[in-house]
Structure formats: C-alpha cells, structure tokens
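OP here, attaching both records as promised.
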Amino acid sequence: MATIKLERDRIADADLPVAQLARQMRLPEGYATVPGQEARLQARLRAAIADIEARLAKSLLLRGAVMERIVGGGRDCPLMLAPVREVLSVKRLDAGAPEMLEVATLRAEAHCSIVSLVRPVPEGARLRFVLRAGYGGWDDLPEGAAQAVLLLAEGLDSGDAEAASRRAAALIAPERDLRLGARG
C-alpha cells in the first residue's frame, strides 16, 4: 500500500567506480594526487547513484536497507524495491509490542520483490523490513544503469546536469517500471 520510510546503508568508498568516472571525464593520470579530487568524484557518484536509484526504485549496489511499509494484508508483501537479495528480518510495528514475523519465501518480479510471510497480517499492518538489496558490485549493474550513473556524475561535475539528466533518463528507460495501475 504505502512505503513510509526507506533508508539505505552508505556505499563504501571502495565500491564507487571513481577510476571509471575519471577515465570517462578524461582526467589526466595522477588526478587522485590533487587534494580533494577523489572526494569530489565520490560525491558526484553518490549523488548520481541516489538519483538513478530514485528514478528506478531499485538499489544498484548491494547494501543493507530498512523499509517501513503499510501492507494490504495477507501473506504476500510487495516491496517497491528491487532487486532484494535477502530479507534479514520482518517486524510488525502496529501490534502493541513489536512482533517478529517469519518469512516463508522471497521472490523477485521484474520491478519489485515479494516477501511471503508464514502467517498472514491484517490490512493496514505496519511492517519494518531489514534487507540486503542491490545487483551486487559495480560490474553486476545493467549496462544502461551503470552508464547513466557515470554520465550523470560527469554532468554534475561539469555543470551540465540538466542535459546529462535527460540523456541518463533515455539510458535507463528500459529498466523503468511503467506504472499504469496500482500495485501493492
């Protein structure tokens, strides 16, 4: 029904494709020896990744996430986040004292993940999901999403973010969920 909150763990500096961004931007060798240069590229990459993740409702790089959601009832709980690799815990928050729920299965669909619980919950139940979501490392990303991140990060650095944003949108169009009807 409604996602109340989504928090993701910070991406480790080592997981950011700084060298690839530097190559794309045609920075000279030794760019990292300039004070603040690597931190600047990391900041641009973090902003670009956050932007693309928001547009796709997907976690790109594998990391922990916490999602609070009001569900429609029953055993199946769709999470508007993909790809979810592992559900670490599910807790019901609206039943007086918080109650841990047992997960039966996790299945992936094209643009979301469905968590099936062992026992059904009532409509309007507020649940907190602790999970690990993302494709994996940088090399595991769909090519269009990876290129969109690099393009957007470069645009943010050069001051041409608007044009880069339009080009990035075209690159991720095949990955986007066309939301014509209501879901979970």
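Record two, same layout:
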Amino acid sequence: MGHTLPVERIGVRELDQNTSQVLGLDRLVAAGRAVAPTNGGPVPLPPKLGDQNEDVAATLAAGRAEERW
C-alpha cells in the first residue's frame, strides 16, 4: 500500500494567479526535480478536429522536434 499525504485545497483563482508559489516550482527546479518553462504566455490550442486546412502530422512533428532541443 502507498502512503497518502494530506492535500491542501486551493481555489482555481489562487492557482491561476500564483501557480509557481502554489506548486513550489522554484524549489523543485533548485532540487533538480523539475525544469523551468522556457516560453511564457498561453498554451496554444490543438487544431480543430476535421480542419482540412491544418496538417496535424506536420504540426506534431514540428512540436516534437522543438521539444528535443
């Protein structure tokens, strides 16, 4: 059986406005357990399902190539 730790409840607004403090990102990065994000801003939405103007395979391949470097 695994160990269950108590979890603090945090509201969506608090999480949205203070994400790094809530998640302790700086501490995790310093400990080598996480990598700080390199891009800022919103996460792009995926292509719309069935959009004939979007080459989904090419978009995925480009994203994967970018992640590796």
